[in-house]
Amino acid sequence: MGSVCIGSRRRRLSLYAFLWVCVILTFSGLFLLTMRSIDPSVGIPFPIKSLEGNVGLRSRIKGCATVEEMGEVFVRGFRKEDLRVRKMIQDHFALHGASRVRDLPPVHFCSHGFVLGKASEAGFGNEMYKILTAAALSIMLNRSLIIGQTRGKYPFGDYISYSDLAFTLREVKHLWRKNRCEEKYGRPLVVRIDNFEKPTQTNVLCSNWREWEQSIIWFQGTTDAVAAQFFLKNVHPEMRKAASDLFGFPELLPSRPNVYGELMRVLISPSDDVKAAVNWVLGGGDPDISLHMRMLMNRSVRAVQAALNCIRKAMRNLHKASRPRVVLISDTPSLIREIAQNVDEFAEVIHFDYQLYKGNISDEVNGVHNLDFRVKDWGPAPRWVAFVDFFLASRAKHAVVSGAHRRVGTTYAQLIAALAAANNLEENTSSSWNFSFFSSFQSNLLVEGLGSQVGWGHVWNRFAGPLSCHDQSNQCAHTPFLPPAWWDGLLQSPIPRDIHRLEAFGISRSHRMEQFPPHFLDGVKTMEMNEVWKLAGILNKIGCFYQDEEDEI
Question: CB-based burial of residue 187 (10 Å sphere; 0-12 exposed, 13-18 middle, 19+ buried)?
Fold first, then answer.
């Protein structure tokens, strides 16, 4: 009897074991099938969870995204955030603008701080970002803005008028002496210099700039939208908050405001001569769409066809009975004639032909001229034409399209779109705001995805890594007005070149100290970020150093 019970028990145990094995094998098979169906493409070191969200099932399955899929997050206008930042800028200059600060009592004026923005007359986009970055930094630090002059002239002063919200350095020096700031209050006029272009000479990530006591701060090397946004990752919570209050959170790409457009709106305007040229070509009516083609003296048929398709896409949102007006600008004037013939079939073409214009600016002989070695970069037209084109294109009412032979969304195109969007944002209206910025890519630019967009300040650089699909067809993608500086958002991934560049700033993908670049290894203080953030799915650390430069003036 006992032997029968034991045999029955063994058979029951064998049956249970068999059932458990079946269950485990079944779930293992289902798990492997699921993982295989969403397996990312070979060579992508990023977790597939990076692709979660409303970007379409196809993107999640193939493990990468097209430029248009990446741009879907920028389709909707960010009216609320833009208006918030506009009010923030207005309040800042009401309190820290030159008209108020210059009349402060000496005890208050001498304790006041300033940020210097100084530009040369090189490429307009890069140089204008130096001034706009200083303006953004003045807001983050609650300081007044100084726009530097050279021999008594503002940068591009023949073509751009600057508002009275900023000081000149000459005026600050005069007021410093007049109020006896050094003699009476013991505060010399000192400039603290921080150079973003030289990682060994910047404290953009590691120091609390709001505690700096120097009277003037000069943040050098800020030639794009990136530098000021580095404060979003500063190790001090106070600095991170000041940056995110202005720029928004880097991981929330759909709700980041048009900071630089709003700053340009209050700081600059065309000079009288440039404005006269713009009005001459417009003839009393603003354009609907502007197309900027950065061609570097090339005449690519593919680039033109992609841009034409992008213009048509922009037109679908206009809902106009009449023919839309399209502004065409390019560094390659001969290309304009070819594009115009095609655009004229469905829209009214507007183009500034400087050879036909007989205004005052066309007769100048002592202004900014082209240099022979920059003709391929800037184009053969006189330099002043670029400023007429800039303010002409920024009058667009509905959309700006950026196309290129190689570099799409350069700083010049970014600023056109940002200013145009700010110009069209109305405060006292209940109507929806739907201004768009499009990037036009021809297929041969996307053979290796966005990997060709290697410029540190190019608008699509932060999407150029392995999550960008190879061998894409022509793309017309919605584009952010505020170019991202980090890789926290959906579908963003870095290229190796930028990973190495971040390492030069002390940002490592490893917890190990030996992964830091050599100049951080000697007595460096290493701080782990309080607010955990991810690059390529790996916790990062920042190597902090302190090497300051000060000048008395």
Answer: middle
Separation of alpha carbons 275 and 258, rounded Å: 24
From start to end of 96-238, where are the E strands? Answer: 114-117, 144-147, 160-162, 190-195, 216-220
Let me know if 27 is exposed, middle or buried by CB neighbors in 10 A (0-12, 13-18, 19+). exposed
Could you count the other beta carbons within 10 Å of the beta carbon of residue 153?
10
Provide the pLDDT for residue 518: 34
**Among 60, 12, 54, which Cα is nearest to 39's?**
60
Beta bridge partners, 145, equal 115
Q: State the average pLDDT over residues 286-312.
A: 91
At 332, the amino acid letter reads: T
Judge whether 97 and 167 are in contact, CB under 8 Å.
no
Answer whether 220's CB lies under 8 Å from 196's CB.
Answer: yes
Three-point CA angle 207, 212, 214, nearest 5°: 140
The CA distance from 175 to 181, in Å, is 9
Q: What is the C-alpha to C-alpha distance for residues 149 and 322, in angstroms, rounded to an integer? A: 46
Show the CA angle centred on residue 477, arms to residues 473 and 480, nearest 5°.
Answer: 150
How far is residue 343's CA from residue 312's CA, in Å, rounded to a whole number?
9
If one counts every other C-beta atom within 10 angstroms of the C-beta of residue 14, the result is 10
| Of residues 151, 141, 187, the one with CA closest to residue 552 | 187
Cβ distance 287 to 396 under 8 Å? yes
Predicted pLDDT of residue 359: 83
In the sheet with 216-220, reading across from the earlier edge strand, the strands are: 144-147, 114-117, 216-220, 190-195, 549-552
Q: Which residues contact 508 (CB under 8 A, 6 or more apart)?
A: 515, 516, 540, 541, 543
> What is the pLDDT at residue 508?
72
DSSP type of residue 167: B
CA distance 495 to 461: 8
Q: What's the rounded mean pLDDT across residues 424-442?
A: 84
